[in-house]
Amino acid sequence: MVQATNLGFPRIGGQRETKKLVENFWAGKITEQALDEAAVKLRAENWKLQQAQGLSQIPSGDFSFYDHVLDHSVMFNVIPQRFRHLAEGHERNFAIGRGIQKPATETQEKVDIEAQEMKKWFDTNYHYIVPEFETNQTFHLSANAKTVQEFNEAKALGIHTRPVILGPLSFLLLGKAAKNSAGLDLITLLPKLLPVYEELFAQLAAAGADWVQIDEPILALDISAAVVAHFHTTYTHLTAAAPKLKFLIATYFGRIGNNVSFIKDSGVAGLHIDLVRAPEQLEHVIANIGQTQVLSLGLIDGRNIWKTNLAAALKLAETAVAALGSDRVFVAPSCSLLHAPVTLRFEKRLASKNPELFDWLAYSEEKCKEVHVIAHALNHGTDSVKAELADNARSIEARRVSSHTTNAAVRQRLEAIVPDQLRRRNVFPTRQVKQHEANPLPAFPTTTIGSFPQTKEIRLARAKFTKGEIDAAAYHDFIKKEIAFCVKEQEELKIDVLVHGEAERNDMVAYFGERLEGYIFSENGWIASYGSRCVRPPIIFGDVHRVNPMTITETVYAQSLTSKPMKGMLTGPVTCLQWSFVRDDIPRSVVCTQLALAIRDEVADLEKAGIVHIQVDEPAIREGLPLRSVDFDFYLQWAVDAFLLSTTGVKDTTIIHTHMCYSDFQDIFQAIVRMDADVLTIENSKSDMRILGAFSTHGYNAEIGPGVFDIHSPRVPSTHEMKERADAMLKYIPSRNLWINPDCGLKTRGWKEVRESLTNMVAVAEALRAASA
Ligand code: GLN
Ligand code: ZN
User: Fold this and answer.
1) Which of 41, 461, 665, 694 has CA atoms 20 to 30 A from the CA of 142?
2) Which sequence spans correspond to the domains of the chain?
């Protein structure tokens, strides 16, 4: 029998219940006990829902309040020194994720601890907390290990689940050496780590588990032969130590390639592969697994919202069944459904207002059903699910022939693009002289990345406007007041290049999507981004184009309030693409070019309106990078071209800024150089400074603002610590090129901490000016 399985279900709840619970806990509105009880309920609902869709292997241990990698680290005692004195429990876990700051009280000293580093999970927009390992790291399994607890919780409900854990190799190699352990070769910790996995497996076996899913996503990366050899010894060892369990090694987001070589004689019971991202790997993998090993087919896109073409998926699955026999085949989503929204049940507006498009969609709940239909067809013949297959075929065809997905004018404009549209008129050194002359700024200019706190009032006003409780005039009036407030605050803080604060934007991609043709919006298509934060990616279903200016009114109004330069804020084409659910019927590169033309028009309008600084954010350019280096060039060519197409239509004196939320550029440095921005602001507050060295080695000569503080934490950084960072930056960046700014937008923060942080930040710039005067 082919099993209908799942790798992970979204943990956020059908209506973002987890987010609300966690935030209420942070705010002291609910107790730890209430938090736990609510989570028990949520998990039960998730399991029952998957069961109701017809899945036979349902994951457990996939729930998390903050991040599953963080939970895994804590379960294995990988807790950085600085958090170890805190009492075990949710509060400590949240502190690791968010940092913690508490004023001194009569009984307690003040607490001020920086969060652990957060990183994008492969090429997704999900962020994980990077495990920090020490040279003399000790691993041990926490009492009431979460994985065992949740398995038992499901068992008590009569649901036999497949526990999911992060595998030892991915755990180590996705982590980093703690500050006190520089130079630590992470893989050397393996012998110390494995006994703890063994203990966990013993507990799971004792609890009655049989299949255990071990996620080893690094198998989709370029890993060395030495690491592949470690996979072999590790799994031979672990399978021998846990004879009662069947291990399913899960890979996703790309092809396993030759890393598959260890599987055959590793003793593992099965392998999961992503056949959405890499359908061509099926044959190779079938030829390279052992005689009895199970192959789990990732046929349903866990990263997107479109219905699966069931006929096509079935065909692929039939190949596998023909080669392996039905007992050796599982059907599954391509990856954990963590990256897909929860359920279409609450998409009421789309269902009634746009039934054509609604009919093309499948969220997690519906994807589970698709898994079931495929497995059922394989087990009992296509006739047994005739109605489901017919209905699916009808909607796939309807989408294919829909007149709403193509626009002839857009296609023509794309055809007509010429190389000159991808170049500035002069090289940066020439532009810089003209820019400084035309628009002089103090040395070490200060700026922010764009957004200011999205306060309760702002969200409330937007909600009222959306619901029709206030009219457009009242809403725009409100936004104008917010902009004016934000400008005044920045003037008082003595920031040099101001922003309007993005109060009118709920989300940096959705805002533009709402104003572009070819996009549509869900009400409830939320996915986890980091911590309690969820995003609701807009949906690109058709050819994208701009009909009206999108940001001119707000930017021009903001500029009218100040004599300081106002920076126009746009989201770049690659980021719009990357943070949307993208149509899968034309290449991503084409969608990206369509977006680029729309942004290019907006840049031109801003310039025409007298805006001198224009920032085109591309925080997502790196996460779009393919997982394998052989695929880099192809992607970077079209991605950077799209950025250039959107930004180069301006005069030399117009200053193009771009922003990225990371600083891990080593492998894409040439692409960053080719983007040819005048000012680049990047994340740098958590990563170490050495990365900046790459800028000088690669001869990067444009202006840079490596973030001097981490906006993901509510912690207020002191002037002293930021000044130290800036001083360290000056070792790598010539002083005329250094900007002083936070590492990302401030929208998730509160005004109090923002004011304090920015006051300290401006003091850094003043100190630097004084020192160099
Ligand atoms: N301008 C955006 C903001 O400040 C940039 C956000 C981002 O890089 N993610 O919110
Ligand atoms: Zn950012």
Assistant:
1) 41
2) 3-80+116-340, 429-515+550-772
